[in-house]
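At this stage, I put together one protein's amino acid sequence and its C-alpha coordinates, which the following lines show:
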Amino acid sequence: MTNKTRYAVAVETAIDKLHEEGRYRTFIDIEREQGNFPHAVWRKPDGTRKDITVWCGNDYLGMGQHPVVLAAMHEALEATGAGSGGTRNISGTTVYHKRLEAELADLHQKEAALVFTSAYIANDATLSTLPKLLPGLIIYSDELNHASMIEGVRRNGGAKRIFRHNDVEHLRELLAADDPDAPKLIAFESIYSMDGDFGPIEAICDLADEFDALTYIDEVHAVGMYGPRGAGVAERDGLMGRLDIINGTLAKAYGVMGGYIAASAKMCDAIRSYAPGFIFTTSLPPAVAAGAAASVRHLKTDQARRDKQQLHAKILKMRLKGMGLPIIDHGSHIVPVIVGDPVHCKQLSDMLLEDFGIYVQPINFPTVPRGTERLRFTPSPVHEPEMLDGLVRAMDSLWSHCALIRAELTA
Protein backbone atom coordinates (compact mmCIF):
# COMPACT_ATOMS: atom_id res chain seq x y z
CA MET A 1 0.00 0.00 0.00
CA THR A 2 1.40 3.39 -1.02
CA ASN A 3 1.42 6.40 1.25
CA LYS A 4 -1.25 8.07 -0.86
CA THR A 5 -3.45 5.02 -0.45
CA ARG A 6 -2.89 5.12 3.32
CA TYR A 7 -3.83 8.80 3.35
CA ALA A 8 -7.06 8.07 1.50
CA VAL A 9 -7.91 5.19 3.86
CA ALA A 10 -7.26 7.38 6.91
CA VAL A 11 -9.53 10.13 5.60
CA GLU A 12 -12.27 7.62 4.73
CA THR A 13 -12.01 6.04 8.19
CA ALA A 14 -12.43 9.43 9.85
CA ILE A 15 -15.57 10.14 7.84
CA ASP A 16 -16.96 6.63 8.44
CA LYS A 17 -16.56 7.18 12.18
CA LEU A 18 -18.85 10.20 12.01
CA HIS A 19 -21.47 8.16 10.15
CA GLU A 20 -21.25 5.32 12.68
CA GLU A 21 -21.74 7.71 15.61
CA GLY A 22 -24.71 9.34 13.90
CA ARG A 23 -23.13 12.81 13.90
CA TYR A 24 -22.10 13.23 10.27
CA ARG A 25 -23.08 16.76 9.26
CA THR A 26 -25.23 17.18 6.18
CA PHE A 27 -25.59 20.52 4.44
CA ILE A 28 -28.89 21.35 2.80
CA ASP A 29 -29.07 23.71 -0.16
CA ILE A 30 -31.37 26.60 0.64
CA GLU A 31 -32.24 29.82 -1.17
CA ARG A 32 -33.30 32.70 1.02
CA GLU A 33 -36.03 34.79 -0.58
CA GLN A 34 -35.32 38.52 -0.53
CA GLY A 35 -37.89 40.34 1.57
CA ASN A 36 -39.52 37.07 2.62
CA PHE A 37 -37.38 35.82 5.51
CA PRO A 38 -37.75 33.37 7.29
CA HIS A 39 -39.22 31.65 4.22
CA ALA A 40 -36.76 29.93 1.91
CA VAL A 41 -36.59 27.25 -0.78
CA TRP A 42 -34.90 23.90 -0.21
CA ARG A 43 -33.29 22.43 -3.31
CA LYS A 44 -33.53 18.70 -2.61
CA PRO A 45 -30.89 16.22 -3.79
CA ASP A 46 -33.28 14.84 -6.42
CA GLY A 47 -33.61 18.29 -8.00
CA THR A 48 -37.09 19.10 -6.70
CA ARG A 49 -37.86 22.19 -4.64
CA LYS A 50 -39.70 22.56 -1.34
CA ASP A 51 -40.83 25.70 0.48
CA ILE A 52 -39.44 25.77 4.01
CA THR A 53 -39.26 28.02 7.07
CA VAL A 54 -35.84 28.60 8.63
CA TRP A 55 -35.87 28.18 12.43
CA CYS A 56 -32.14 27.86 13.16
CA GLY A 57 -30.61 30.89 11.46
CA ASN A 58 -28.33 33.36 13.20
CA ASP A 59 -29.99 36.28 11.43
CA TYR A 60 -31.76 36.78 14.74
CA LEU A 61 -33.67 39.95 13.84
CA GLY A 62 -34.15 39.48 10.10
CA MET A 63 -31.80 42.38 9.34
CA GLY A 64 -30.29 40.49 6.41
CA GLN A 65 -33.49 41.37 4.53
CA HIS A 66 -34.04 44.87 5.90
CA PRO A 67 -34.53 47.58 3.23
CA VAL A 68 -32.13 49.97 5.02
CA VAL A 69 -29.33 47.38 4.85
CA LEU A 70 -30.03 46.38 1.26
CA ALA A 71 -30.15 50.01 0.10
CA ALA A 72 -26.77 50.75 1.71
CA MET A 73 -25.21 47.70 0.09
CA HIS A 74 -26.63 48.53 -3.35
CA GLU A 75 -25.34 52.09 -3.09
CA ALA A 76 -21.84 50.98 -2.10
CA LEU A 77 -21.75 48.27 -4.75
CA GLU A 78 -22.66 50.75 -7.49
CA ALA A 79 -20.11 53.23 -6.17
CA THR A 80 -17.12 50.94 -5.61
CA GLY A 81 -17.61 47.57 -7.28
CA ALA A 82 -17.34 44.14 -5.70
CA GLY A 83 -14.18 43.60 -3.67
CA SER A 84 -12.01 45.81 -1.47
CA GLY A 85 -8.91 45.12 -3.54
CA GLY A 86 -6.53 44.22 -0.76
CA THR A 87 -5.72 43.91 2.90
CA ARG A 88 -6.49 46.81 5.23
CA ASN A 89 -2.81 47.79 5.10
CA ILE A 90 -2.54 47.62 1.31
CA SER A 91 -5.36 49.44 -0.52
CA GLY A 92 -8.18 47.64 1.35
CA THR A 93 -9.26 50.42 3.72
CA THR A 94 -12.17 52.46 2.37
CA VAL A 95 -14.47 55.11 3.76
CA TYR A 96 -17.00 52.32 4.33
CA HIS A 97 -14.65 50.44 6.66
CA LYS A 98 -13.88 53.62 8.59
CA ARG A 99 -17.57 54.50 8.91
CA LEU A 100 -18.33 51.01 10.19
CA GLU A 101 -15.59 51.19 12.81
CA ALA A 102 -16.85 54.59 13.93
CA GLU A 103 -20.40 53.20 14.31
CA LEU A 104 -19.08 50.29 16.38
CA ALA A 105 -16.91 52.46 18.62
CA ASP A 106 -19.93 54.67 19.26
CA LEU A 107 -22.14 51.62 19.90
CA HIS A 108 -19.88 50.33 22.66
CA GLN A 109 -18.79 53.78 23.89
CA LYS A 110 -15.14 52.95 23.28
CA GLU A 111 -12.41 55.07 21.72
CA ALA A 112 -12.03 52.80 18.71
CA ALA A 113 -13.08 49.61 16.97
CA LEU A 114 -11.31 47.26 14.57
CA VAL A 115 -13.19 45.23 11.94
CA PHE A 116 -12.17 41.69 10.91
CA THR A 117 -13.61 39.32 8.33
CA SER A 118 -15.37 37.33 11.09
CA ALA A 119 -15.78 37.29 14.85
CA TYR A 120 -13.91 33.98 14.85
CA ILE A 121 -10.87 35.71 13.34
CA ALA A 122 -11.30 38.68 15.67
CA ASN A 123 -11.19 36.40 18.73
CA ASP A 124 -8.37 34.22 17.46
CA ALA A 125 -6.23 37.10 16.23
CA THR A 126 -6.69 39.28 19.30
CA LEU A 127 -6.24 36.62 21.97
CA SER A 128 -3.22 35.10 20.22
CA THR A 129 -1.59 38.52 19.85
CA LEU A 130 -2.06 39.94 23.36
CA PRO A 131 0.92 38.04 24.89
CA LYS A 132 3.17 39.71 22.32
CA LEU A 133 2.00 43.05 23.68
CA LEU A 134 1.95 42.03 27.34
CA PRO A 135 4.91 39.69 28.05
CA GLY A 136 4.12 37.15 30.75
CA LEU A 137 0.38 37.55 30.27
CA ILE A 138 -1.83 34.90 31.93
CA ILE A 139 -5.23 34.38 30.30
CA TYR A 140 -8.09 33.01 32.42
CA SER A 141 -10.66 31.43 30.10
CA ASP A 142 -14.13 30.04 30.81
CA GLU A 143 -14.22 26.33 29.94
CA LEU A 144 -17.22 26.81 27.64
CA ASN A 145 -15.79 29.69 25.65
CA HIS A 146 -16.27 29.56 21.89
CA ALA A 147 -13.82 27.54 19.79
CA SER A 148 -12.35 30.77 18.38
CA MET A 149 -11.44 31.98 21.86
CA ILE A 150 -10.01 28.58 22.80
CA GLU A 151 -7.92 28.56 19.63
CA GLY A 152 -6.61 32.06 20.24
CA VAL A 153 -5.65 31.25 23.83
CA ARG A 154 -4.08 27.94 22.80
CA ARG A 155 -1.95 29.45 20.05
CA ASN A 156 -0.62 32.45 21.90
CA GLY A 157 2.24 30.65 23.58
CA GLY A 158 1.51 32.28 26.92
CA ALA A 159 0.19 30.93 30.20
CA LYS A 160 -3.47 29.98 30.44
CA ARG A 161 -5.86 28.94 33.18
CA ILE A 162 -9.27 27.37 32.53
CA PHE A 163 -11.99 28.08 35.06
CA ARG A 164 -15.19 26.10 35.46
CA HIS A 165 -18.12 27.51 33.53
CA ASN A 166 -19.44 30.69 35.17
CA ASP A 167 -17.75 29.64 38.43
CA VAL A 168 -16.56 32.93 39.91
CA GLU A 169 -15.14 31.30 43.03
CA HIS A 170 -12.99 28.95 40.95
CA LEU A 171 -11.80 31.94 38.93
CA ARG A 172 -10.90 33.72 42.17
CA GLU A 173 -8.85 30.72 43.32
CA LEU A 174 -6.90 30.68 40.07
CA LEU A 175 -6.25 34.43 40.15
CA ALA A 176 -5.14 34.30 43.77
CA ALA A 177 -2.71 31.45 43.10
CA ASP A 178 -0.70 33.40 40.51
CA ASP A 179 1.96 36.06 40.87
CA PRO A 180 0.13 39.30 41.75
CA ASP A 181 2.51 41.25 39.53
CA ALA A 182 1.91 39.10 36.41
CA PRO A 183 -0.30 40.73 33.74
CA LYS A 184 -3.70 39.03 33.62
CA LEU A 185 -6.73 38.89 31.33
CA ILE A 186 -10.11 37.22 31.92
CA ALA A 187 -11.85 35.99 28.74
CA PHE A 188 -15.52 35.03 28.83
CA GLU A 189 -18.85 35.42 27.01
CA SER A 190 -22.01 37.35 27.77
CA ILE A 191 -24.30 34.66 26.29
CA TYR A 192 -23.21 31.08 25.70
CA SER A 193 -25.03 30.10 22.55
CA MET A 194 -25.67 26.39 23.05
CA ASP A 195 -27.50 26.66 26.41
CA GLY A 196 -28.41 30.34 26.14
CA ASP A 197 -27.07 31.16 29.62
CA PHE A 198 -25.52 34.46 30.68
CA GLY A 199 -22.02 35.08 31.95
CA PRO A 200 -21.65 36.75 35.40
CA ILE A 201 -20.29 39.99 33.95
CA GLU A 202 -20.42 42.17 37.06
CA ALA A 203 -18.85 39.55 39.33
CA ILE A 204 -16.03 38.98 36.83
CA CYS A 205 -15.45 42.73 36.54
CA ASP A 206 -15.24 42.92 40.34
CA LEU A 207 -12.57 40.21 40.32
CA ALA A 208 -10.72 41.97 37.52
CA ASP A 209 -10.62 45.14 39.62
CA GLU A 210 -9.47 43.22 42.68
CA PHE A 211 -6.65 41.40 40.87
CA ASP A 212 -5.79 44.20 38.41
CA ALA A 213 -6.75 42.13 35.36
CA LEU A 214 -8.00 43.12 31.92
CA THR A 215 -11.43 41.91 30.79
CA TYR A 216 -12.23 40.45 27.36
CA ILE A 217 -15.88 39.69 26.63
CA ASP A 218 -17.42 37.96 23.62
CA GLU A 219 -20.84 39.55 22.97
CA VAL A 220 -21.37 37.78 19.64
CA HIS A 221 -24.81 36.42 20.48
CA ALA A 222 -25.88 39.60 22.27
CA VAL A 223 -24.94 42.56 20.07
CA GLY A 224 -28.00 44.01 18.40
CA MET A 225 -30.17 41.98 20.76
CA TYR A 226 -29.78 43.49 24.22
CA GLY A 227 -29.38 46.95 25.68
CA PRO A 228 -31.21 50.19 24.77
CA ARG A 229 -29.02 50.62 21.66
CA GLY A 230 -28.25 46.95 21.02
CA ALA A 231 -24.70 47.03 22.37
CA GLY A 232 -25.23 43.78 24.25
CA VAL A 233 -25.76 42.42 27.74
CA ALA A 234 -23.03 44.64 29.18
CA GLU A 235 -24.94 47.70 27.98
CA ARG A 236 -28.21 46.31 29.34
CA ASP A 237 -26.57 45.87 32.74
CA GLY A 238 -24.70 49.20 32.70
CA LEU A 239 -21.27 47.53 32.65
CA MET A 240 -19.73 48.45 29.29
CA GLY A 241 -17.34 50.94 30.85
CA ARG A 242 -15.83 48.19 33.01
CA LEU A 243 -14.86 45.99 30.05
CA ASP A 244 -11.53 46.52 28.32
CA ILE A 245 -12.08 44.62 25.05
CA ILE A 246 -15.48 43.77 23.57
CA ASN A 247 -15.78 41.27 20.71
CA GLY A 248 -18.85 41.21 18.49
CA THR A 249 -20.15 39.99 15.17
CA LEU A 250 -21.89 41.56 12.21
CA ALA A 251 -23.17 38.19 10.95
CA LYS A 252 -25.91 37.44 13.48
CA ALA A 253 -28.31 40.11 14.74
CA TYR A 254 -26.88 42.60 12.22
CA GLY A 255 -27.56 40.18 9.37
CA VAL A 256 -24.44 40.77 7.26
CA MET A 257 -20.87 39.49 7.75
CA GLY A 258 -17.73 40.30 9.71
CA GLY A 259 -16.50 40.62 13.27
CA TYR A 260 -14.79 43.25 15.39
CA ILE A 261 -13.29 44.33 18.66
CA ALA A 262 -14.02 47.60 20.44
CA ALA A 263 -11.48 48.92 22.94
CA SER A 264 -9.13 51.84 23.61
CA ALA A 265 -7.52 53.52 20.63
CA LYS A 266 -4.10 52.26 21.71
CA MET A 267 -5.31 48.65 22.07
CA CYS A 268 -6.97 48.64 18.63
CA ASP A 269 -3.88 50.22 17.11
CA ALA A 270 -1.63 47.57 18.67
CA ILE A 271 -3.80 44.66 17.48
CA ARG A 272 -3.99 46.26 14.02
CA SER A 273 -0.22 46.49 13.95
CA TYR A 274 0.74 43.08 15.37
CA ALA A 275 -2.04 40.53 14.63
CA PRO A 276 -1.29 38.36 11.55
CA GLY A 277 -4.99 37.47 11.29
CA PHE A 278 -5.70 41.13 10.62
CA ILE A 279 -2.58 42.14 8.70
CA PHE A 280 -2.61 39.37 6.08
CA THR A 281 -6.37 39.06 5.39
CA THR A 282 -8.21 40.79 2.56
CA SER A 283 -10.68 43.24 4.03
CA LEU A 284 -14.45 43.01 3.80
CA PRO A 285 -16.01 44.12 0.50
CA PRO A 286 -17.09 47.77 0.80
CA ALA A 287 -20.72 46.83 0.16
CA VAL A 288 -20.66 44.43 3.12
CA ALA A 289 -19.11 47.09 5.36
CA ALA A 290 -21.75 49.59 4.22
CA GLY A 291 -24.59 47.17 4.92
CA ALA A 292 -23.18 46.32 8.36
CA ALA A 293 -22.82 50.01 9.27
CA ALA A 294 -26.43 50.66 8.20
CA SER A 295 -27.64 47.72 10.29
CA VAL A 296 -25.72 48.81 13.39
CA ARG A 297 -27.00 52.37 12.97
CA HIS A 298 -30.61 51.21 12.53
CA LEU A 299 -30.64 48.88 15.51
CA LYS A 300 -29.43 51.63 17.83
CA THR A 301 -33.03 52.90 17.74
CA ASP A 302 -35.22 49.91 16.74
CA GLN A 303 -36.18 48.63 20.19
CA ALA A 304 -39.49 47.31 18.88
CA ARG A 305 -37.69 44.69 16.80
CA ARG A 306 -35.74 43.49 19.85
CA ASP A 307 -38.87 43.39 21.99
CA LYS A 308 -40.81 41.37 19.43
CA GLN A 309 -37.98 38.84 19.12
CA GLN A 310 -37.85 38.36 22.89
CA LEU A 311 -41.63 37.93 23.00
CA HIS A 312 -41.57 35.24 20.30
CA ALA A 313 -38.78 33.38 22.12
CA LYS A 314 -40.72 33.54 25.38
CA ILE A 315 -43.89 32.23 23.75
CA LEU A 316 -42.08 29.35 22.05
CA LYS A 317 -40.40 28.32 25.30
CA MET A 318 -43.68 28.46 27.19
CA ARG A 319 -45.50 26.31 24.63
CA LEU A 320 -42.73 23.71 24.34
CA LYS A 321 -42.52 23.50 28.13
CA GLY A 322 -46.28 23.07 28.24
CA MET A 323 -45.94 19.91 26.14
CA GLY A 324 -43.28 18.55 28.46
CA LEU A 325 -40.41 18.93 26.02
CA PRO A 326 -37.01 19.21 27.73
CA ILE A 327 -35.91 22.74 26.90
CA ILE A 328 -33.18 24.83 28.49
CA ASP A 329 -34.41 28.27 29.55
CA HIS A 330 -31.98 30.80 30.96
CA GLY A 331 -34.05 33.76 29.85
CA SER A 332 -32.17 34.52 26.64
CA HIS A 333 -33.43 34.49 23.05
CA ILE A 334 -32.03 30.99 22.34
CA VAL A 335 -34.35 27.97 22.60
CA PRO A 336 -32.49 24.63 22.91
CA VAL A 337 -34.54 21.42 23.00
CA ILE A 338 -32.50 18.51 24.36
CA VAL A 339 -32.81 15.24 22.45
CA GLY A 340 -29.82 13.49 24.03
CA ASP A 341 -28.95 11.17 21.15
CA PRO A 342 -27.27 12.06 17.84
CA VAL A 343 -29.29 9.58 15.75
CA HIS A 344 -32.65 10.70 17.13
CA CYS A 345 -31.55 14.33 16.78
CA LYS A 346 -30.79 13.86 13.08
CA GLN A 347 -34.02 11.91 12.55
CA LEU A 348 -36.09 14.66 14.12
CA SER A 349 -34.34 17.27 12.01
CA ASP A 350 -34.87 15.26 8.82
CA MET A 351 -38.56 14.64 9.53
CA LEU A 352 -39.23 18.27 10.42
CA LEU A 353 -37.71 19.29 7.11
CA GLU A 354 -39.23 16.63 4.87
CA ASP A 355 -42.69 16.35 6.42
CA PHE A 356 -43.33 19.85 7.76
CA GLY A 357 -41.03 22.19 5.85
CA ILE A 358 -39.34 23.24 9.07
CA TYR A 359 -35.55 23.63 8.95
CA VAL A 360 -33.62 23.25 12.20
CA GLN A 361 -30.11 21.83 12.14
CA PRO A 362 -29.16 19.09 14.66
CA ILE A 363 -26.43 20.14 17.11
CA ASN A 364 -24.14 17.25 18.03
CA PHE A 365 -20.72 16.59 19.58
CA PRO A 366 -18.20 18.26 19.56
CA THR A 367 -20.29 21.44 19.48
CA VAL A 368 -22.09 20.18 22.60
CA PRO A 369 -21.14 17.36 25.02
CA ARG A 370 -22.21 13.81 24.15
CA GLY A 371 -25.62 13.02 25.59
CA THR A 372 -26.82 16.62 25.23
CA GLU A 373 -27.50 16.60 21.48
CA ARG A 374 -30.20 19.11 20.69
CA LEU A 375 -32.30 21.08 18.27
CA ARG A 376 -31.61 24.79 18.71
CA PHE A 377 -34.39 27.15 17.67
CA THR A 378 -33.87 30.87 17.12
CA PRO A 379 -37.26 32.55 16.69
CA SER A 380 -37.09 35.99 15.11
CA PRO A 381 -39.46 38.97 15.09
CA VAL A 382 -40.56 37.97 11.58
CA HIS A 383 -41.68 34.43 12.49
CA GLU A 384 -45.44 34.86 12.35
CA PRO A 385 -47.85 33.25 14.88
CA GLU A 386 -49.02 30.63 12.36
CA MET A 387 -45.40 29.56 11.81
CA LEU A 388 -44.96 29.14 15.55
CA ASP A 389 -48.21 27.13 15.73
CA GLY A 390 -46.97 24.84 12.97
CA LEU A 391 -43.63 24.30 14.70
CA VAL A 392 -45.23 23.45 18.04
CA ARG A 393 -47.67 20.98 16.45
CA ALA A 394 -44.84 19.34 14.48
CA MET A 395 -42.64 18.96 17.55
CA ASP A 396 -45.50 17.49 19.57
CA SER A 397 -46.28 14.94 16.85
CA LEU A 398 -42.69 13.90 16.17
CA TRP A 399 -41.77 13.68 19.87
CA SER A 400 -44.57 11.13 20.27
CA HIS A 401 -43.68 9.37 17.01
CA CYS A 402 -40.08 8.89 18.18
CA ALA A 403 -41.24 7.86 21.68
CA LEU A 404 -38.97 10.43 23.31
CA ILE A 405 -39.28 11.19 27.02
CA ARG A 406 -41.30 14.18 28.18
CA ALA A 407 -41.02 15.98 31.48
CA GLU A 408 -43.80 15.36 33.99
CA LEU A 409 -46.06 18.36 34.16
CA THR A 410 -47.31 19.63 37.49
CA ALA A 411 -50.40 21.67 38.07
